[in-house]
Amino acid sequence: MFKTLLTTLILFFTTATLVAQHPGAYLPGYPGAPVRGHFQPVKIYGPEGTKIAFAADGKFVERKETPYCVGLQLSADYRLRITDIPLHPGKEVFPTVKVIGRTFPPQGLELEFPILIEITHEDLELALSGKFVTRVIYLEDPQNAMPIPTQPGAPLSVDVGDGADPLKFAATLGQPIAIVRLGGRVPDLNYVDPTFFHGFPGWVAFDKTPQK
Q: What is the pTM of this model?
């Protein structure tokens, strides 16, 4: 079973497998080649108590409680480790995050306007049960906004159904800027598999130096 969701960010954010952010806070992003030296701020939310870890130097680094803000390079696939999942002690999920567009907030306010990604408890439970979940986050085009009531800061999730292409669907509503995939491979943490970690792309924890 595949579950595809659209995440819409309106004003601050809303989530689904097409994610849209309001262009009042952002200029349109764009898909394409990586920008050398640019780390796009991304803030990841999870169920209360969950922790996430990114990889560096051939392993997952220290786990951090969500929400957690990092800088990611465009077009790179990042492997995450999610632990401390409510109602599932000892279980772990290893999603990937890929930023395919960037935002253009006012200079000096980059960390005030990150791409916001929410991974829900339902997403994690589906992944633990062997299902696949895809979330696409997009910048919303006001001319094509879905007629669904929302509140600032309240995530809006739209299930586009099995067999649908969430990336193409998101493109009809705005500019896709990030993709999250859950389910599938579980690593042997005693063995370093570079393919599982997609080559360990560099990232930034904004209170620390870049992780190479």
A: 0.80
Radius of gyration of the chain from its Cα atoms, rounded to whole angstroms: 16
**How far apart are alpha carbons 96 and 119 in whole angstroms?**
11
- pLDDT recorded at residue 139: 83
Q: Confirm if 131 and 1 have CB atoms less than 8 A apart.
A: yes
Return all residues near 8 (Cβ < 8 A) that are at least 6 apart. 14, 15, 16, 18, 19, 20, 21, 138, 140, 146, 150, 156, 158, 173, 174
What is the CB neighbour count within 10 angstroms for residue 122?
13
Share of the chain above pLDDT 70, in %: 72
Other residues' Cβ atoms within 10 Å of the Cβ of residue 170: 29
